[in-house]
Structure prediction request, 233 residues.
Amino acid sequence: MKTLCVLQHVEAEYLGLIEDHFEGRNIRFRYCRPFTSGAAVPADTEDNDGLVLLGAGPLGIVSGHLMPSLGAELRLTRSFLDRGLPVIGIGVGACILSTAAGGGAEEAPLRFVLEMARRIVPDALGGHLPQTFPLGVYMRDRPVLPAGAKVLAVDARGGPVVFQWRDNCLGFLGHPGIKSAMIEDLIMDSDEVPEGTAETLASLRAAQGVIAAALAAIMVGLVDLTRLMELSV
Prediction:
C-alpha cells in the first residue's frame, strides 16, 4: 500500500472528492498542516511514496501574502523529485512544483473562475483525460513551466491548466476534486473576495455532477501515471 504526503496550507482546502478515489484504491494519505501549532513541513520524503501540494487559497508564491512555509516546501518537493517520486501540484501547488522542477512562477491576481478545460494531447493520462471538463480555479499567481513540461489541457484563452513533468508529475491550476463548500469556507476566511464570486459559486454548484464524472476518469489516468498502485520493490 502506497502512502502520500498531502501538504495543506489552509484548513478549508483539502483533497475534496479525490479522497474517495484514493481510499477506494487503498492509497493512504496523511495531511501535513504546517500552519497549525507545533506542525512543520517534513525535512525529506520520509516513508512517503508521493507528494500532493494543495492550493493555498489567497496565499501567493510571488505576490500578495506569501506562503510562510514556501522555502521548506520547495526543499521537500525537490527531495521527492530527486528521488523520482510522483508530485501532484494543485493551484499554487502547481507553482511550487514548477519552481522546484526548474521553472518558476509569475504574478497574477487572486481569481475564482470555473474554466472549461480542453485536452490538447489525445493520449493525455493514458487517454483518460476527458476531451473537455470543468475545472474550478481559486488561486493567486501562475506557474512558469519548467523545461520539458508537457501541456495536457488549456483554458478558453489557450493558457495551460493541466501539465505533466517527467513521466510521473502533474500540475493542475484548478482543483479537479473541488467542492463548492471548500470555496465558501476559503472565502469566509479571507479578507479578499475575487470579482464575480457569487456567480462563479452558483456555476460551480451546478457543475458538481459533471466535475465528479470527469474526476472519475482523471483519477484512473493519474493513478496509472504515478504508479501509485504498483507494488513497492
About this structure: The chain has one domain: 3-226. The first strand starts at residue 3 and ends at 7. The longest helix spans residues 208-226.
